[in-house]
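Researcher: Structure for this, please.
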Amino acid sequence: LAAAIAVPVCVTVLLVVGLLLLTKRMRGRSFLGKIKPPGPGPDTTLVVTDVQDSTALFELMPTVMDAAMRVHHEVVRACAISNNGYEVCTEGDSFSVAFGTPQDAVLFSSQLQEALMAAAWPEE
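Model: Predicted structure, token format:
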């Protein structure tokens, strides 16, 4: 009789714990895992990136800058995703990324700086 009660209780507890962990992991994401835009509120934070002097660099080295922008865009998107950032828009080399908390925005910014320094840039 004790086993008949203990097994269903243990299974139920494991399911509840699993659902709680999944819910915490999915914070800010849809059921399919896509990042949802943060709603309006005092903690919603927008980060805008820009590549300094990109227009001049494109004029001097268009082929190299095309390759560099591909690397840049991959790095920005990877960092945004890993910090629950929602890509609002891009324009040229600039990204606008929205976050549900200022902490996520700061973590994104810090991680992005490190990732850009470590990225595999074109040789020129």
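Researcher: Any notable elements?
Model: The longest strand covers residues 86-91. The radius of gyration is 21 Å.
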